[in-house]
Design a protein that fits this description.
heterodimer; A: elongated; B: alpha/beta; 9-stranded mixed β-sheet; two-stranded antiparallel sheet; 21% strand; globular; disordered C terminus
Chain lengths: 227, 237
């Protein structure tokens, strides 16, 4: 049997207005849950960057081959071998495994005007403490430079800028989680109310009682309690 | 025995029920209907209130009217009537009282009342009995309008039995409460049984919807018409 579904935007809007308290409660609950979740799970992460590049003062061809090697072996930064070597540069206060060092490190390659000669690798380290982030970034960069020297037999790969400061990496992470929580807290009840109204069978307009013209509306009686 | 009927104090509501009375009167004039069954598709839509107010409106217009409470399942203390459990329809149908003892007058002129009585069960068999049919025929001869208040369609089978014994059935629904599906089901069941459903009353509508239906319902309630102040001619009381 076909059933007519009528979407009355006015009715939906009125229903949302009437049930505003449900939406507010839902947002509050989701916000509270997401706040607790973010407090428990989101820890401050500090980030520090060291930049590595390739340069030869001997000849242009040496510079080019050095840059090519840098591009080719950029992935080594995140390798276990480099992480193990980096540990030797870190003092005894920082106790991480090579796997943990690998997870903390990420790279980004940039070049000016697409020129191979100007290619640089930015080594970013993330850690719970700023001094750890700085130390790890520098240690990994040093270990990478040594590894490249071993591989190429040349000293073209060098550290351009050492990491000296660290900034908070996930400054907005807690706020983002709270906003996502509030968003879903508001959206879910709104969607439920809208679908309930669309699929609702209750009499809303006067014509609804007439069953599509089958019944004559003899009279309409107002709600005296509210008039 | 005299029964107290409580009328609405709100003039707008009284006017609305008077409009219903006019509609019923016109149907009666067109088709000769005398017995009307007021039936809700679902409980708690204001069926009893509608029946009482309609009966009062018809009586106020000068028509000899009787309100028959056929809801033998509910105690009469749930009705908006100032009476306790007097003997009524149930006792009459089991032969405990006569028709003289059955009918009571009310505080409204031209309006009589038959209460539901104190039922112990067997409502269905009593409603199917010849006694009730004879009573309805008798009331039809004596009164201009016979209004029956019955339990809701979805809650008891009583309305199905009575629907075919009356001249016309008036359904009652409430805004934001009744469902379209239930009204359609009620209407088609009554139609299938051979009952004459003449229309529906939509009850408990909000002011905004009422304004759409009857845009100037409050025209004569405006202050200037109450105090008699006429433009340009000074006050007139």
């Amino acid at each position: 049997m076909n059933r007519e579904v009528r979407i009355d935007f006015g009715k939906i809007f009125n229903s949302l207005l009437k049930k505003w308290w449900i939406i507010v409660c839902s947002i509050s609950i989701f916000l509270a849950i997401s706040s607790i979740y973010s407090e428990i799970n989101v820890k401050k992460q500090y980030e520090s960057v060291t930049t590595v590049f390739s340069m030869s003062y001997a000849s242009l061809s040496d510079s080019l081959s050095g840059s090519s090697a840098l591009s080719a072996y950029a992935d080594l930064v995140e390798s276990r071998k480099v992480a193990e070597s980096a540990l030797s540069y870190l003092s005894g206060e920082i106790e991480y495994s090579p796997e943990e060092i690998q997870k903390m490190v990420s790279t980004n390659t940039t070049a000016s005007n697409n020129s191979k000669l100007s290619e640089k690798i930015h080594i970013t380290a993330q850690a719970p403490k700023p001094e750890e982030a700085i130390a790890i970034a520098n240690a990994v960069a040093n270990a990478f430079v040594i590894e490249m020297q071993n591989l190429t037999g040349a000293n073209t790969v060098q550290i351009l800028d050492s990491a000296e400061t660290a900034h908070i990496a996930n400054k907005n992470a807690k706020l983002q989680i709270k906003l996502i929580g509030a968003f879903w807290g508001g959206l879910l009840p709104i969607l439920i109310i809208i679908f309930k109204e669309i699929l609702s069978d209750e009499i809303y307009r006067i014509e609804d009682a007439g069953c599509n013209g089958k019944l004559e509306i003899l009279a309409v009686i107002p709600d005296f309690d509210n008039m | 025995m005299r029964t107290e009927m409580y009328r609405q104090k709100n003039k707008v509501v009284v006017d609305a029920y008077d409009r219903l009375a006019v509609a019923i009167h016109l149907k009666s004039k067109q088709c000769g209907y005398k017995t009307f069954m007021i039936c809700g598709s679902e409980p708690r839509v204001g069926t009893t209130t509608t029946a009482i107010e309609l009966a009062i409106s018809m009586a106020s217009a000068g028509w000899k009217t009787i309100l028959l409470d056929c809801d033998m399942r509910k105690d009469s203390s749930f009705k908006r009537l100032g009476e306790s459990n007097q003997a009524g329809l149930y006792e009459y149908l089991i032969g405990k009282i006569t028709s003289k003892e059955l009918i009571s007058s009310t505080n409204e002129k031209n309006l009589d009342y038959i209460s539901n009585g104190k039922s112990d069960g067997n409502q269905v068999s009593l409603l199917c009995s010849a006694n009730l049919q004879e009573l309805l025929e008798k009331l039809k001869k004596e009164y201009d309008f016979v209004i029956l208040d019955v339990p809701a369609f979805s809650s008891a089978v009583d309305s199905n039995i009575l629907a075919v014994l009356v001249d016309a059935v008036v359904l009652v629904a409430a805004q934001y409460k009744s469902s379209r599906r239930m009204i359609e089901r009620t209407h088609s069941k009554f139609k299938k049984d051979g009952a004459n459903v003449i229309g529906i009353v939509l009850n408990r509508i909000d002011e905004r919807t009422y304004k759409k239906a009857i845009s100037n319902y409050d025209y004569f309630l405006r202050q200037k018409y109450k105090t008699g102040v006429k433009h340009g001619n000074g006050g007139k009381h």
